[in-house]
Amino acid sequence: MNLGLLGDAELERSPVVANNAMNRERRLAGYRRELGLDIARFLRDRISAGAVPRWLDLCCGTANALFEAARTIPGEFELVGVDLVDFFAGPPTPPRLQLITASITTWTPDAPFDLITSVHGLHYIGDKLAILTKAATWLAPDGLFIANFDPHAIRDDSGTPFGPRLTRDLRATGFTYNSRTRRITCPARRDLTLPYTYLGSDDHAGPNYTGQPAVNSHYLRS
Ligand SMILES: C[S@@+](CC[C@H](N)C(=O)[O-])C[C@H]1O[C@@H](n2cnc3c(N)ncnc32)[C@H](O)[C@@H]1O
Predict the structure, then answer these.
(1) Alpha carbon nearest to ligand 1 atom 2, residue
(2) Cα separation values, 42 from 31, 54, 144, Å
(3) What is the 121 CA–ligand 1 centroid distance (Å)?
(4) 13-40 pLDDT, tens per residue?
(5) The domain at 8-221 falls in which architecture?
(6) How far, in Å, from the CA of 60 to the mean position of ligand 1?
(7) Nearest alpha carbon, ligand 1 atom 7
(8) Which of 204, 187, 212 is nearest to 119 (CA)?
(9) Domain boundaries in the chain?
(10) Which ligand 1 atom is nearest residue 25's CA?
(11) Among 64, 107, 195, 216, which is most buried by a count of CB atoms within 10 Å?
């Protein structure tokens, strides 16, 4: 079956990824709703424990949630947001916030993070499983990764979802996936490999559970 799969450069130019209809403007309340996590409390708890917590938001959109955290949470912390397009709110950018225009498929951090989030960002990524495994290694030993994730978008070379086999593989490497909330988490730093070889992506997948057109990612499982 010829799926006409795209590489990252083509995908990043696709109208599905460069789509103005997607919601890029969530604030902390929206992140709390989508992730089931009170990020302000998470950061405050670590600050109270004497740490200088670092939060990385992958596919941060306008970075409204990061701006809100930087402006409202007292104490020492560091915030980093990465997005393909610089639709960032502001300026001015608060001193504790760093905003980076880059693809998360090629960007790498230079220090570990206490918290890594991606709110409805993975739906637009080609090699989603590579981002999951990289994010797990970018965590501090007691860090937390949490993201919205649709396993239905992970497909084999014939276009069929891997289904429960994928969620079993993810759980076996230390991820937690909740099929009701469609959230994936990694509760601590992990060096892991998943038995999947990336083939390319399909930007004609149509709307996913969010109602927005999304990207399917195709793999061979070894
Ligand atoms: C639905 S928006 C979510 C934005 C933000 N997390 C929010 O909830 O408001 C998805 C974001 O993913 C970004 N994105 C898509 N592909 C990306 C890539 N390869 N690297 C970084 N960001 C990407 C888009 O530019 C967009 O801002």
Answers:
(1) 24
(2) 13, 11, 10
(3) 5
(4) 999 998 778 889 999 999 999 999 999 9
(5) 3-Layer(aba) Sandwich (3.40)
(6) 6
(7) 24
(8) 212
(9) 8-221
(10) 9
(11) 216
